[in-house]
Amino acid sequence: MSFVKSKGFKYFKNLIIGIGASLVMLGALYKIQSWNMPEIGGMKIDLLTVGLVTEAILFFFLGVIGPEKDYYWEKLYPGLDSHSASISPLTEGAGGMGADNTQHKLDGMLSELQSMSKSLGSLKALQEVDFSETGEQIKTMGNFYSKMNEAMTSLNDTVDDTKLYQEQLSSLNRNISSLNSVYGNVLTAFKG
C-alpha cells in the first residue's frame, strides 16, 4: 500500500482522472453536435464510450484504494504519520507531549485568540463610529480656534494698554508728589 500513498501514484491517478474526464466531455460534445467521430487506423472511435469506460475503471479503482486523508494531525501530534512511532496519551509526562506542555500550548493559543478577539472588537467599534458629522465638527473647531486667536490678540492689546496706563499713573504719582512737596514748601514759607 505504500505505492498507493506515494506522490508519483497520486500524480498518475490525477492525470488519468483528468484524461478520462476530458474524453467524456469530448465524446459528449461530439454526440451533442452530431459530429463524426475521429478515426484511428480506419476504425471510428467513440470518445464518449472510451471516456466513460475509463472513468468507470477509475471510479472502481478509487473505491478499492479508499479516500485520501485531508487532515494533518501529525503537525499537532508529531509521530502520528510514522507507523513505528510510539505515541503515549497526552496526559503522560515522559512518552507523550505531557499535560504541562499541552496546557502551556493551549494557554498560548487561548491568549492569542483573546488578543485577536480584542483587536476585532476594536475594529468593529471603529466601524460603528458615525463620521457623518465629523466635517461639521472640524469646521466648528476651526471657528473656535480662530475666535480664540482673536481673543488672545485682543487680550495682548489690552495688556499693552494696561502697561501704558500703569506707566502714565506712575508718572502722574511722581508729578503729584513733586507738587505736594512744592505746595508744602510754599505753605511753610507763608507760615514762617
* Backbone shape: elongated
Query: What number of structural domains do the residues give?
Result: 3
> How large is the count of helical segments?
6
Neighbour order of strands in the largest sheet: 1-2
Rg over alpha carbons = 49 Å
Could you give the order of the helices and strands? HHEEHHHH
Residue runs with pLDDT of under 50 for 5 or more positions: none
Give a structural overview.
This protein is mostly helical and 192 residues long. It folds into three domains: 2-68; 79-129; 136-192. Helix content is 74%, strand content 2%. It is built from six helices and two strands. It has helices spanning 2-5, 7-33, 47-65, 73-76, 99-128, 134-191; strands at residues 39-40, 43-44. It has a two-stranded antiparallel ribbon with strand order 1-2. The longest helix is centred in the last third of the chain and has 58 residues, at 134-191. The radius of gyration is 49 Å and the shape is elongated. 3% of the residues are buried. The mean pLDDT is 79.
Write the layout of secondary structure elements.
Blueprint: H1 2-5, H2 7-33, E1 39-40, E2 43-44, H3 47-65, H4 73-76, H5 99-128, H6 134-191
Antiparallel strand pairs: 1-2
Helix pairs in contact: 2-3
